[in-house]
Amino acid sequence: MSSADNDDDLKPSTTPGYKPGAAKSADEYAKLDAEDESLARWKASLGIVPGATTSDAIGPKVTVLTLELDSPTLPAGKKIVFDLKDTARLADTKKNPIVIKEGVEYNVRITFKVNHSIISGVRYLQVVKRAGVRVDKLEQMLGSYGPNPTGEPYTKNFEPEESPSGMLARSGSYNVRSRVIDDDGEVYADWDWSFKLAKEW
Question: Would you tell me the Gene Ontology cellular component terms (predicted)?
């Protein structure tokens, strides 16, 4: 399968007729419709306050820090967290896939920072393949965020899913490609990892 096919799998869905607005800096958003009280409250919830924003727009708007798989069935103290800066561990999952218990509810959680500007239309895409055939695709919207005035990262929990079960599901491993992308097609993170299903975590 060509890399073009893989990229088609990781294109976000589109709404016919919808065109994203022109990107604005946090400063521009802070000054926009300053007299609208409800809009001012919404902007404040995103950390957009006149005079408190930065016009420094160097580097990516979004930095994805971690990907975590969480489940109420995980044993106490066990965590499945990928630090996206640890490319060696991500690469190691090809040889040593992480283990996910079959037939359990789990959810994906990502932690990210908004460095400058306002983000909207940013989504997380995840394509799962087995033996080169797509078996699942997850697409979740991050929401709208501005740079956090405290400098703390944001965490987004996605809707729970259920892992497959059965002897056939447990045979072999699954390859996953994850991507964080916006409506304009700008990719903020793109990484591969692998997992296998088992009777226990």
Answer: cytosol; membrane
